[in-house]
């Protein structure tokens, strides 16, 4: 809005600045002062509406016309040039309503060595390195469509189909947007007759629509996938030249874990040492094909929004816990090195030991099973919510794991099994379960002694997600997959 007013004022200066009349000269000086004030602090005349500024512009042009023709003349109707003309945007034909959009899909990730605390809240700089596994976007992902058009009168955003207040409180979203705009390049679409210069991006409004195919803010790293997808899609829309490592430093400023979602496979977030955060970036340790036999099962205990956000929880922990400081300084560096080696060598026992050691103490059945085997079969961890994440060493073990989970945590009788196990449902065939009758008929796991009654916790788990290590973000070129209409830029 403020930019439109600025260009209206600038246009006025250009049009009346050369007039000899004293009144118009004074008016030009006033507008120049407005522009200087606007550049200095983005306040003052910026508070008035675009409509009011355009009316002001019309009045000034009428005065100019009268000066040309004499005080007694009646000027003809004058039209204020549209915003896109003042911006210098070039369009084919007479169309003023072109829409340029990009749709991208970005995965979420699960940390196996976690960061829990920041040394800088504003830049989101962690107190230790972390390592994560990127999850298959076919099962867990964020899809985001970003669009731009000279016909948009304000920035707007829709999250999971609901219009959200823009900008978001806290400034993180705006920080990411500012960083991307600062790196924007010229964009030209010859088919649509569009040419947008680097400078134009500062003055065009955006429409953004984002959708998670998993619960938002429930501890499944929805903010990581969401902010990573936003940064990635905006970078594609604005032709940003930076590589993924540099983009990860921008995504980090929106959500710390977001930097890790810009890569597939196994990812390390380097804490960095620089005060400006320039060296706090994500790097890929190995792609998703490096250790593709792993199967990940997530027990969603609650899909409701967390009572305590990751940010506030971390802040309180860093301020009050001596143990977390000891962990960051003494424990995590060693675990990071050991986890990198475990991933490199596909050493599951070491991987499981490190992942489990880095989590809180559904886990009873996993521990009991692991103790009954010669080496660990399943690693487990928790993310920022109550949901347990279990990583099986291969598909056969994953089937045995799911069998145990369904035995100990059966759904309520009226539950549809297809909604209780989602993601890669083919694993149900390996378990030998087709419906609720099969679940009820599952035998106790062999590690349970005959004289000890098996405990069941019906209804304690909302559902299970079966997935695997997955790839990083991708652009979806098919416009049918866009969340916004290619013609209007509004939600479909």
TrEMBL record:
Pfam families in the cross-refs: MDD_C, MVD-like_N
Q: Which residues form the Diphosphomevalonate decarboxylase-like N-terminal domain?
A: 107-282
Q: Mind telling me which SUPFAM superfamilies this protein's record contains?
A: GHMP Kinase, C-terminal domain (SSF55060), Ribosomal protein S5 domain 2-like (SSF54211)
One GO-annotated biological process of the protein = sterol biosynthetic process
- Tell me where in this chain the Mvd1 C-terminal domain is found: 296-362
Which keywords does this chain's UniProt record carry? ATP-binding, Lipid biosynthesis, Lipid metabolism, Lyase, Nucleotide-binding, Steroid biosynthesis, Steroid metabolism, Sterol biosynthesis, Sterol metabolism
A single GO CC term, please? Answer: cytosol
Name this protein carries in UniProt: diphosphomevalonate decarboxylase
């Amino acid at each position: 809005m403020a930019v439109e007013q600025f260009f209206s004022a600038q246009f006025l200066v250009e049009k009346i600045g050369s007039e000899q009349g004293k009144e118009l000269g004074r008016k030009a000086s006033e507008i120049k002062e407005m522009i200087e004030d606007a550049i200095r602090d983005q306040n003052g005349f910026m508070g008035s509406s675009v409509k009011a500024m355009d009316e002001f512009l019309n009045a000034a042009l009428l005065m100019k016309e009268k000066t040309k023709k004499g005080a007694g003349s009646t000027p003809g109707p004058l039209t204020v040039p549209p915003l896109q003309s003042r911006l210098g945007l070039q369009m084919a034909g007479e169309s003023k309503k072109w829409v340029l959009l990009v749709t991208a899909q970005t995965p979420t990730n699960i940390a196996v060595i976690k960061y829990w605390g920041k040394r800088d809240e504003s830049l989101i700089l962690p107190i230790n390195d972390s390592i994560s596994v990127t999850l298959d976007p076919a099962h867990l992902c964020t899809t985001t469509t970003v669009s731009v058009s000279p016909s948009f009168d304000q920035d707007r955003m829709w999250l999971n189909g609901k219009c959200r207040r823009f900008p978001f409180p806290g400034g993180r979203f705006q920080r990411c947007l500012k960083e991307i705009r600062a790196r924007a390049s010229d964009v030209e679409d010859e088919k649509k007759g569009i040419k947008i210069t680097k400078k134009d991006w500062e003055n065009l409004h955006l429409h953004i629509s984002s959708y998670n195919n998993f619960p938002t803010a429930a501890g499944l790293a929805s903010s990581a996938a969401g902010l990573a997808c936003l940064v990635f899609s905006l970078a594609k829309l604005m032709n940003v030249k930076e590589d993924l490592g540099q983009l990860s430093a921008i995504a980090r400023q929106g959500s710390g874990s977001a930097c890790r979602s810009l890569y597939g496979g196994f990812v390390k977030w380097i804490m960095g040492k620089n005060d400006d955060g320039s060296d706090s970036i994500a790097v890929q340790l190995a792609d998703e094909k490096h250790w593709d036999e792993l199967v990940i099962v997530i027990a969603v205990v609650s899909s409701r929004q967390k009572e305590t956000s990751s940010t506030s929880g971390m802040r309180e922990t860093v301020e009050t816990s001596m143990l977390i400081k000891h962990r960051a300084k003494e424990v995590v560096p060693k675990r990071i090195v050991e986890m990198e080696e475990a991933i490199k060598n596909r050493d599951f026992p070491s991987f499981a030991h490190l992942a489990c050691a880095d989590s809180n103490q559904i886990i009873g059945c996993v521990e009991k099973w692991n103790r009954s085997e010669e080496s660990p079969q399943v690693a487990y961890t928790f993310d920022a919510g109550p949901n347990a994440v279990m990583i099986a060493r291969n598909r056969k073990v994953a089937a045995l794991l799911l069998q145990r989970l369904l035995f100990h945590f059966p759904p309520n009788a009226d539950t549809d099994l297809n909604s209780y196990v989602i993601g890669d449902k083919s694993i149900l065939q390996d378990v030998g379960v087709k419906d609720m009758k099969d679940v009820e008929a599952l035998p106790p796991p062999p590690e349970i002694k005959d004289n000890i009654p098996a405990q069941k916790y019906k209804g304690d788990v909302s559902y299970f997600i079966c997935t695997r290590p997955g790839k990083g973000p991708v652009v979806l070129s098919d416009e049918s997959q866009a969340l916004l209409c290619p013609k209007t830029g509004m939600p479909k």
